[in-house]
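Entry 0007
Protein: TauD/TfdA family dioxygenase
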Amino acid sequence: MAIRFEDIKPKIGSRILWDDRADLFTEEAAAAIRAKVEERTVVVFPKVDLTDEEQLRITDLMGGRIRITGRNNVQEIENDDVYQVTLDAKINPQPEYVLGTFFWHMDGITIDTPPPFATLLSCRRKAPQGGQTEFASTYAAYEGLPEAEKAALEGLKAVHSVKASLRHIEDAIPEKVRDAVIGIGLIKEHPIVWTHDSGRKSMIIGTTADHVANMPIPQGRALLIRLQEWAAQPDYSYRHEWEEGDFAVWDNTGAMHRVIPYDERSGRMMHRTTIAGTETIN
Ligand SMILES: [Fe+2]
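Output (structure tokens):
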């Protein structure tokens, strides 16, 4: 097989390299990429310049597409399975959910299906300032916790909501749409430690996690914020500086992600697809 991988950081991130671009679109390559995403959290395809059709082909080969975002966008593209991530008001008249991604989160935690396995992003236009995406491996972060802290997390559950994920920007949302914007999604209780079918453990944390069930609100929120900070430390996280044409795939079931703030007039444009999850949370 004429694809190969190289590590970006010791505990997170790989780059895929290829001789012939056609080698990226085979079932064999998709299985190898999926395994690498699970092992290394994020796989970057430098300057691969995928078309939407090619991105969807990789999405399907790696496990199958799912749509997780409602359609507020007035997209420039026809295909509804590709979501244009942008703050451009002509395309995205309701920017709040994109603004919410300035903060550490996982995708699809408050929907009624298993969380998406992976999110896939192509950089069509980068922002002149900001707009980098950061990834934090909650597998590596969990593994690195002191044993006493791992024991203390056993059995704890957190309550997740879209409202919580927008807490930092709630007062910046126009009042006439605020209740509707923060009211979407379900309120879901998930264990903080997710024991996967593989036996490995990751953490379900990020801004959707509002509080810890059966724990006083201040103590629970302080714990959730400390876990976010722990996972975001440089050993477990990676910041990707996008170049136009870059494509990245990450394991949404074992990582938080966020974008470094950028301006709505920056022109930043990302094309996103999503791979359906197959694992219910245990
Ligand atoms: Fe996201």
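Curator remark: The first helix runs from residue 27 to 40. The CA atoms of residues 164 and 208 lie 5 Å apart.
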